[in-house]
Amino acid sequence: MTQQATRHDWKLEEISDLFRRPFNDLIFQAHSIHREYHDPNEVQISSLLSIKTGACAEDCGYCSQSSHHKTDIERERLLPLEEVIEKAQIARNNGSSRFCMGAAWRNPTDKSLEKVIEMISAVKDLGMETCVTLGMLTQQQSERLKEAGLDYYNHNLDTSPEFYGNVITTRTFKDRLDTLSHIRDSGINICSGGILGMGETSTDRASMLQQLANMNPHPESVPINMLVQIEGTPLHGAEKIDPIEFAKSIAVARILMPKSQVRLSAGRHEMSDEMQALCFFAGANSIFYGEKLLTTDNCETNDDLALFDRLGIHAAEVDEQSEFKASACSS
Ligand code: SAM
Ligand code: DTB
Ligand code: SF4
After folding, report:
1. Ligand with minimal distance to 135 CA
2. CA-to-CA distance for 34 and 38, rounded, in angstroms?
3. Other Cβ atoms within 10 Å of 114 Cβ, number
């Protein structure tokens, strides 16, 4: 087996060339790399829970939870610990190996961070991996989360540095990079990716992937979301991304970051089984599972199980050393 060297010096033009390759050549290359590094029939599944919903000070143009937009979500304060444990237990019983808790904050206060830490400890006690996404963090807060045993922190770049200002104005691209470097320095695994279908160009998609691929080490998890269009947000009505271009983006992410988990994230609800199958072939090897994402619908769990069954895919499971091992998805 000839594993290619993992690179962190990708030029934008090289990545754009990958996007310009004939589809079959690109997908073949991505799938070949995928097989070298991963079990091609294994997909890791995480479940999401919004632990604090809405009234967010940021103006992210895609988001239902920004106080800058008029959407019809119900605001909720930080959930009680018992409710979080109950939801995590359900997710574990449904086969999720990781529980990801999201809060609509620009950044957490130290006081609310301690409450989230209680949640992290309780979820870890259930034998699940933990992930949180709470907005910007200081170095000290990252270290506190590491000390509490957090496995992953999700903080997306969202889009290219060039397109970023069209989507968010209340924090900068550099703010995001700073939070990511605090997470990296504190030793927590990074989950970072972006959203496609916000009106960005193919060069923007290449540029966002360049930013991720030139991080050293690569983010351990790379969520690729397809915009879920939400009425009342500025990006409602944005031109939808061509499914083939979306699958190509998954393939390019797999080629650039061979060892990472590439997560087929938001937007699966609007994807056909065939499009999801193509994304798995192109190198996606994790999903969000469960009927809700944060505030919007995800695929029905029975539909996911039926798709896994049709494709002969099994879910990855965590063992005591937090390493993935195969298990039947329905067991
Ligand atoms: N407030 C925190 C933050 O922004 O870092 C955490 C929660 S935020 C909802 C997590 C990520 O979900 C965003 O960075 C974005 O990439 C993704 N996301 C949010 N709304 C989305 C939508 N409508 N469609 C696709 N992805 C979305
Ligand atoms: C990520 O990249 N996608 C997830 C997770 N990280 C937190 C969130 C998707 C949110 C989709 C819109 C919603 O449900 O509000
Ligand atoms: Fe707030 Fe996160 Fe939504 Fe942006 S994506 S408005 S930071 S909850």
Report:
1. 1
2. 6
3. 12
For residue 74, what is the enclosing H or E element? none
Average pLDDT taken over every residue of the chain = 90
If one residue of 112, 136, 156 were mutated to test the ligand 1 pocket, choosing by the most ligand atoms within 8 A of its CB, it would be 156
Active-site annotation, residues: 56, 60, 63, 100, 131, 191, 263
Is any ligand 3 atom within 6 A of the Cβ of residue 104?
Answer: yes
> Which residues, at least 6 apart from 33, have a Cβ–Cβ distance to it below 8 Å?
4, 254, 255, 258, 283
* Rg (alpha carbons) of the chain, rounded to whole number: 18
Which of 101, 154, 208 has most ligand 2 atoms within 8 Å of its beta carbon, as the pocket-test mutant? 154
Of the candidates 271, 262, 257, which has an alpha carbon nearest to the alpha carbon of residue 222? 262
The residue type of 148 is A
Q: For the segment 73-104, what is each residue's pLDDT rounded down to a tens digit?
A: 888 799 999 999 999 998 888 878 899 999 99
SS3 (DSSP) at 158: strand
| Alpha helix stretches (DSSP H) within the chain | 12-20, 23-37, 81-93, 110-125, 139-147, 173-186, 202-213, 243-256, 273-282, 301-311
58 lines ligand 3 (CB under 6 A): yes
Query: Taken in order 5, 8, 11, 12, is the CA torsion positive or negative?
Result: positive
Percent of the chain with pLDDT over 90: 76
Residue type for position 269? H
Give the global pTM.
Answer: 0.92
Q: Is 230 in the pocket of ligand 1 (CB under 6 A)?
A: yes
Tell me, using a 6 A CB cutoff, whether residue 133 lines ligand 1: yes
Tell how strand 221-226 and strand 42-52 pair up: unpaired
Between the two ends of the chain, the Cα-to-Cα distance in Å is 32
DSSP 8-state class, residue 48: E
